[in-house]
Amino acid sequence: MVNETSLLSPFLALFSAVLLLVVIFPTSLCVAIYELVKHRSEPQYPEKILITGAASGIGEAIAVLYASSAATATPSRNVFLALLDINPTALERVAETCRAHGAQVETHVIDVTDGPAMNQYLLALDTRVGGLDLVHANAGVIPSTVFAGPNIRNTTIKQRFDSVFSVNGVGCLNTVTPLIEPFKARGHGHFAITASIASFYLLPDSLSYNASKAMVYRFARDLCHIMRPYGVTVTAICPGFVETNITKRLREEEPEIRISGMGVQQAAHTIERGIYNKEEIIAFPKFSYFLSWVIRNSPDHFVGFIYHHLRKNREWHYLG
């Protein structure tokens, strides 16, 4: 039986190419020039910052960088960091490093999936410090960071999906939504949401991770447009492979993955620069971002054809 959608793919690709060249490229160029000329401003440095998932990986690196950058600035800047995580020992270690740079640090051991607890803490903190400047929803997991070692083999697909969506998706919403109205009322504030290059397209073995990151990316982009008239900015952060505990676990699960990751310090510097400039999307490495853009703008049947031929002899270790 002929698949009509498959037959349409070449024509859709041609139409997309024409549309990109004739309409989207010149329009995007004009918008980029306009933004550069009209809206380029001096970097804005947040003083009161909250970060979830701050005990390791990108969260740890960016927390330490905020503290060290404030200390070495001329003149030096005061910075308050509220660091949240579920690992008290690692969290306190990060806090001490930040304090050594002169930052005022508050730690709070909390599970971002606990909506009522997050709501209570965030609203109380925001009032107590006189209004947070930056809230970074950064906590994230993959199935093997939740179900340690061989335990993952004994879980169901539903359990793996729930574990990832509860942190990556619901945890993000629990971090951001309580402060939308306070930020809106003040006409000030910045939300940073850690999504992923996987928000755009990744090999579909990691269904739960891809879908959860696509969810928070879409949330960040839509919230950005909604909050702009109120003076509140929103950044979607889309890292590719960064050398963190998550990518370490991923390599343990999938030994055939040989993609070299960006160092976490380099990633933190990229994020910090984008946050200070209030960029709407921070995506890196650039080649990964470009490749994901090509894939998501290609017909699904073409992408599926390439995928299945590249990985036809591969067996899934588990789904989700």
Mean pLDDT: 86
According to DSSP, the number of beta strands is 7
SSE order, one letter for each helix or strand: HEHEHEHEHHHEHEHHEHH
Radius of gyration: 21 Å
Number of helices: 12
Biggest beta sheet summary: 7 strands, parallel
> What is the strand content?
5-15%
Q: Widest sheet: strand order?
A: 3-2-1-4-5-6-7
Q: Categorize the overall geometry.
A: globular
Question: Any guess at the CATH architecture?
Answer: 3-Layer(aba) Sandwich
The unreliable regions are none
CATH topology: Rossmann fold
- First-to-last CA distance: 31 Å
CATH superfamily: NAD(P)-binding Rossmann-like Domain
CATH class: Alpha Beta
Q: Report the structural category.
A: alpha/beta
Number of domains: 1
**Percent of residues in helices:** 40-55%
Key phrases:
NAD(P)-bd_dom_sf, alpha/beta, oxidoreductase activity, transmembrane, 12% strand, 54% helix, seven-stranded parallel β-sheet, oxidoreductase, 320 residues, single chain
